Amino acid sequence: MSKIAVYPGSFDPITNGHIDIINRSRCLFDKLIIAVVHNPNKEALFGVEERIDMIKAIIKGHKNIEIDSFSGLLIDYVRQKGAYVIIRGLRAISDFEYEFQMALMNRKLNEEVETVFMMPHEKYIYVSSRIIKEVFQLGGSISDLVPEIVERELKKKFSILK
Ligand code: PNS
Q1: pLDDT of 40-91, one tens digit each?
Q2: For the whole prediction, is pTM greater than 0.90?
Q3: What are the residue ranges spanned by the domains of the chain?
Q4: Is the dihedral of CA 115, 6, 20, 101 positive or negative?
Q5: Distance of CA 126 to the CA centre of its chain
């Protein structure tokens, strides 16, 4: 039986921290599905298709990685894809409470599915999509923290918004 894991998230936009988690987890599973959430109730800077296109441009050439989107309950999507593992990145203690709640709720919904936490390289411990957008918008450098394509797309997005 092939081991499939789902790495869900907003990825608005994807950062080098996310990519670090992808590279660590893809070696552990036969297939890794990067699943971009489509949540109409949460305002995002990039549309789901824009986020997927950026991820596809960055993660190319890996046969065991699929890039997809989902809406509704994550746990339902995970089972539809034939997976039993959810990957989440854990950066600091501040992530813990939210992640712990989600993992236990997902386990309550389906106890066959396990959440696996991965730690990124310590150089990305403080990186989040939210802080990247804020720093970029205020003119700070983020070039070591996101892939080039993300920086380019952020430039475009903020010049349209201005
Ligand atoms: O990158 P994020 O925003 O921290 O990812 C959060 C995500 C997408 C994993 C979470 O919001 C989610 O699972 N959403 C789908 C709806 C759902 O299943 N909610 C109950 C989670 S216990």
Answers
A1: 898 999 999 999 999 999 999 888 999 999 999 999 999 999 999 999 999 9
A2: yes
A3: 4-161
A4: negative
A5: 15
Distance 112 CA to ligand 1 centre (A): 18
Question: What was the pLDDT predicted at 143?
Answer: 94
Is 4-161 in CATH node 2.40.128.600?
no
Which residue of 34, 37, 131 sits with most ligand 1 atoms within 8 Å of its CB, as the best mutation to test the pocket? 37
- Beta partners for residue 4, in sequence order: 31
**Residue 70 one-letter amino acid:** F
Spatial separation of the C-alpha atoms in residues 99 and 114, rounded to whole Å:
13
Q: Rounded distance, CA 161 to CA 97, Å? A: 34
With 0-12 / 13-18 / 19 or more C-beta atoms within 10 angstroms meaning exposed / middle / buried, residue 138 is exposed
% of the chain beyond a pLDDT of 70:
99
* 1 band by pLDDT with thresholds 50, 70 and 90: confident
